[in-house]
Write the structure tokens for this entry.
Amino acid sequence: MSNYEHTIIARQDSSISQVKQIKEKYSEIILKNKGDIVQTQDWGLMNLSYLIKKNKKGNYIHFKIKCDGSLIKELEKSEKLDKNLLRFLTVKVKKFDLETNYFKKEDKSGEK
């Protein structure tokens, strides 16, 4: 089994419940195909560098997964058909960085 980091960008007009459903849908696909979800992070609504399908922003969901390459193919095949998604990206990594959350929102008091 290999380690993968998988990021999904959902449409900006997706509600909180729709983003939750998207996260659950792809978590279910991972678990059904014998993958192991190490961590899931909801990065929230962030600006895109350029317009994608007339969207300036996107809801980011990030998975850290242990699985075989065949699961990634199945996951991406399903994501290509999903109209609620703008983009997705999968990167194979040697080990996971589970301590750092790069996109966590900071409090106004300066604490994370």
